[in-house]
Design goal:
This protein has about 100 residues and is an all-alpha fold. It has one domain (about 25-95). The protein has helices spanning about 1-50, 55-70, 75-95. Helix 1 packs antiparallel against helix 2 and helix 1 (about 1-50) packs parallel to helix 3 (about 75-95).
């Protein structure tokens, strides 16, 4: 019985100690979701116009600058990975069109 009580107390303490971390993780995820919406909005112009190299070339440098700006705002590893993938996709389209950064 003493072991059960000790385990219950440890479990409660662990849950109480982790609740702040869980709240922070949720907050970081929500923040990253909003930040990535900005990045995706900027990148969509390039992605939609992938077959129109003139349109890509006109907006490529400003889109890449926006993606670089967003990078500093991300707080989670998943957000950074998502942005890296998005930047790679935009860069591939820009390279195919010969767009200058």
């Amino acid at each position: 019985m003493t072991k059960t009580i000790a385990l219950a107390v440890l479990a409660c303490l662990a849950l109480l100690g982790c609740s702040g971390g869980a709240d922070q993780a949720v907050s970081d995820t929500v923040s990253d979701t909003q930040t990535l919406a900005e990045a995706e909005s900027a990148a969509n112009g390039i992605i939609r116009n992938a077959s129109d190299c003139e349109a890509v070339s006109e907006s490529f440098s400003s889109v890449m600058a926006k993606l670089d700006e967003v990078e500093g705002k991300l707080q989670t590893a998943v957000g950074r990975t998502t942005l890296t993938t998005l930047k790679r996709q935009v860069s591939t389209i820009g390279d195919a069109c010969g767009a200058a950064r």
